[in-house]
Specification:
mainly alpha; 12 helices; globular
């Protein structure tokens, strides 16, 4: 909401206006989600292109600075880690940078919406990871070359500092619009994924079956969409700014990825009738060891993150208990066997 207001030069005199904008925005996202997955994905592609434009502008400015001799590209090979050694610096940086790659795991929830997912999905997922990693590396090179690292860490708009340093005459106000689209894109894709996750869990009997029902015409999981939207609205209304939220999210996901990598090794013992992607054994072993280590306090993680994670886990266990009791009380109901795909 704040990005929306900045983009359109609106004056928000109180938090009420910001909250109203956020609620209206989530209602629009829910409408797109109810309309269908194909519409949501198409809109996601458009918003992603807009979001990518902002990163490409930064990369282009870095290339321009390199061509005209501006900037100090020798900073790219500097390895200043302060009181830590080289290995410690890399580990701490990895725990921080991991948050930038969060989100790819959500695409698994949409795999059943694809045609031939066993053949197409692994290639697309790996290609997306490689392309994103390459773009992030190029942005990092441009940023460090044009602005010293200690200055990049100050303030909330480091990329604007890069643009102002490499191209002072560039109209930086357009980044307010790009940021608005980026936030909208994140909200849209997360709500799409969350509703499909609830739907899939209901289909497998983990959650109450009504969450697995789909609309007769649109084939969208309407109960799951309404539930996740109400949950998001509740968070907007009743949950304030949570300290260390980004670090806590990364901590919990690293713990989840540790379990997932171990599960890969266990589940591959089960025979699969159809042709499917199979990762080399050393990769899940390395993934489990790496993610498990990054969860430990040896990475200089803020202790507050463990406390917040513990509270969230306690809430999750409580909700699991409520869900378990609900499943026992709900009668077995026939469920539509058609796919939720459009």
């Amino acid at each position: 909401a704040a990005n929306f207001a900045e983009a359109f030069d609106l004056e928000l005199g109180s938090g009420i206006a910001v909250t109203v904008i956020a609620l209206v925005f989530m209602a629009v996202v829910a409408a797109v989600n109810l309309r269908g997955v194909s519409e949501g994905v198409k809109l996601n592609v458009v918003l992603t292109c807009v979001e990518l434009t902002g990163l490409l502008i930064v990369i282009a400015i870095g290339c321009w600075a390199l061509g005209v001799g501006d900037g100090d590209f020798s900073r790219i090979v500097e390895f200043e880690t302060g009181e830590r050694n080289a290995v410690g610096g890399v580990i701490v940086a990895t725990t921080l940078a991991f948050y930038a790659m969060v989100g790819f795991e959500d695409s698994v929830n949409m795999a059943e919406e694809c045609k031939e997912p066993s053949r197409i999905f692994p290639k697309v997922l790996l290609a997306g990871l490689l392309i994103t990693g390459l773009i992030y590396i190029m942005v990092s090179i441009s940023a460090v070359a044009l602005v010293p690292a200690d200055q990049l860490g100050q303030g909330d708009t480091p990329l604007l500092k890069v643009v102002e340093a490499g191209a002072p005459s560039f109209p930086t106000h357009i980044f307010a619009y790009i940021t608005m689209f980026a936030v909208a894109n994140s909200a849209l894709i997360n709500m799409l994924m969350a509703s499909r996750l609830i739907y899939g869990m209901a289909r497998q009997g983990v959650l109450p079956r009504p969450f697995g029902r789909v609309h007769e015409k649109r084939r969208t999981p309407y109960n799951a969409i309404v539930f996740t939207t109400l949950l998001a609205l509740g968070l907007i209304l009743f949950v304030g700014e949570v300290p260390e939220l980004g670090g806590t999210t990364a901590l919990l996901l690293l713990a989840v990825f540790t379990v997932v990598n171990v599960a890969v090794l266990v589940l591959r013992r089960d025979p699969v009738a159809h042709k499917h992607f199979k990762t080399p054994t050393p990769l899940p072993v390395l993934g489990a060891l790496t993610c498990g280590f990054l969860v430990t306090p040896f990475t200089d993680r803020n202790p507050a993150q463990y406390a917040i994670a513990g509270v969230l886990l306690a809430i999750g266990i409580a909700l699991w208990g409520v869900n378990y009791l609900a499943l026992r009380s709900i009668r077995a109901q026939p469920l539509d066997t058609k796919s939720s795909a459009d």
